[in-house]
Design goal:
9 strands, seven-stranded mixed β-sheet, alpha/beta
Amino acid sequence: MIIAGIDEAGYGPLLGPLVVGCCAFEVDADPSEELPCLWKRLNKYVSRKRLKSGKKIQVNDSKVVYSPAGGLKELERSVLALATAWQGWSDDLVCFLSRTAPHAVPDLSEYRWYQPDGDEAFPIMQDAMSVQLFSKALAEHMRRTQTRCVHLGARVVFERQLNRMIDATRNKGSALFSIAANHLDFLLKTYGEQDLVIMCDRQGGREHYGALLRLMFEEWALEVHREHEGYCDYRLERAGHRVRVIFCEEAEGQCLAVAAASMLSKYLREAMMRRFNAFWKRHLPEVAPTAGYYGDGARFLNDIDSKRRELGVTDGELIRCR
C-alpha cells in the first residue's frame, strides 16, 4: 500500500518561489481497513511535537515546526533526516535539489538572486554528522516497521514562471492545482497499481475537485465519494486498480505524508529566500531581510527600489503578479 501526501509553501507571498511538495510511503497494511497512522508506526523516532531531548524528529504542518522566531533548525533536521533515509546524504544544496526538485537546478540560472555565494553552508543550521547518524537509525526503524519512504519531491516554481502560469489561467488557484497535478500524475503512473491513497491539503480556495480530476486524468474513471464541508473524497479506477484521492482542510495534521510534503516545501522555499536576501544584502548592506509576504514584501521592494532599477531587474521577474 502507498500513502502519499501533497502540500505547498509560498502560495500567498509577494516575493520568492511557490513550492509544492510530495511525499509517499510504502506500508505493509490491508487497504480495505482504515488508513494506518504513520506517526504511530514511526513513534520511536518521529513525533508530532518537538521534544527537548532530541530523540525524535518533529513531523507536522510546517507552520507548527517552523517560525521566524524559532528558526530553521528543527525543520531542517526533520527534512534532512527523512530525505537521507530515503535516498542518502546530500553534500550541498544543489545536490539536495537535484534529488528532490531536479527541474529547479537549471531554472536557478535564470535568477541572479538565487545563485549561491561562497559562504553558503549546508546544512544551513544543523550538524551534518548528527543528522546522518539519526537518519541511519530512522531508516533501520522504517525497515523494521515496514514503513518505507519511497518518494520525496517538490516543484519549485520561480517568479517569472509563476507569473506566466497565472497570466495564462487568470486564476492563482488554478495555477496551484496544475502544479499539484504534476505530482498526482507522477503518483498515478508510478504507484497506481499498488493500492494508492493520496491526501492533499486544500488547493487555494477551491472546494470541489471532481471536474478537474476528470479533465486531467481522462484514462481513469472517476467516482465522487464525497464533496462536503472542506472534505472531498474521490476514487479513480482503471484496469481493475483503484486509487483514492482526498482533499481536505488541515490535512497536515491528519497524514504524516502531507506533513512531510509541507515541511519539504517550506524548507526549499526558506533555502531560496536565504539566497534571495543574501543577494540584496551584498548590494545593500543595510537592507533588512524579508520572508516575502505582502506587508513586509512591499517594504522590502521600497527599500531596494533604486538599486533594482539600477541593476535592470524588472517587475515581471521579481514580483509575483498575484
